[in-house]
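thread: overnight batch results

M.L. [08:02]
morning all. the overnight job finished for the chain we discussed friday. pasting input first so we're all looking at the same thing
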Amino acid sequence: MSVYHLQLRIDRHLFGEYLEPQRMKLNDVVIPSGAFRVFDSTREPKTGDRVFLKLTKSESGDWRYKTAGVPSDMERKRIDRVCNLLSRIDVRGAAQEMLVGCRDVDPVFAVWCMNAISPIDVNQTPAEEWFYGRLRAQASPVTYRSILLEVLTDDASPAIRFVSASRALFPAKKMPEADQAIFHYAHCRRLRNYFDRELAPFERKFFFHELEHIRATYGKMPESDRRELLLILREFADHQSPERQQAAFDLASGLHSEHDDALNADILRLFSEHCPHPATHPDAEATYWFSLDRYMTEELKCRKRSCDVALDLFEKRLPTADPPKLRWFLQILSSYAKRCQREQADWDHLAERLRTLAAVEVTPEQRKMIEEFLRSLKIEPTGGAKT
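M.L. [08:03]
and the structure it wrote out:
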């Protein structure tokens, strides 16, 4: 973290209140390490840097530094396009260009267009109403929805554009059946085709944001749709690609059903049959255990009971874990046990299950860590364990 005295010359005003004077001084500006971006990397600011700068005004009327960075050529062009649209006198024409922009090859510009022009269920702040309201008034909800459906069914849509279209079309509330069918078909098709395409690093970066969106939404989808998705995830789990396995574990953890025991058994079977090897697939293994913990937590929350199958998987893994990894596993189990205590859900059974960990065949160092873990939960270890 460094403290700077900045002397700025304003070359161009983009958004917000007009700045006077065109030169200003900002004292004691704190810029944390890694916070000054230059294209896709970071460095310390230099004299002469031409930056995009965001300033805020205090109640006393003083301007304060918020963020700054050196933009890429694409970012400059993107801002030029945005400024041009927002300054157009022909509001209707600008709105039509923004609707077309929802499918733009620049995915960040496309997402800006989706958000700026959205006439669907918009909860606008007064500032947003002032800034975007005149444009949104010119956008037909029917046309907007039709364009976003095209984005959703385009296999080549980058992840950031695809997820933004999906979120705009299908908010977190329960969907109508027709919307559920569209959402389910689009996401299953996209998952099947995802790994068969050459992806830019930009797309890879957003892939797990896309998975998070799908996982969060499928908790509200019919069990029949969850089963169809689970079939795809089994194919992913069978694959040797760590990325496909990570996708399988991450998404499977969100398919838990409050009512369908057979579906839950199939989800746990996927985990039981596909535990990644820590040496060859370390990233997939980390996702595996985090995802299994997420599934266990959902079972605890929805059905007020612990998950014996998942606990068995942890118990089998502990003896092969080195001390740092064992500590990590015990932290996961500790958080899970404390949730169980807080919610008063199946604690007596879980305590007895955890107590049996002291009887697992482990080294003296591992045993000491397990016993300390049990005592931290006020569970007295059983005696007679092997070493």
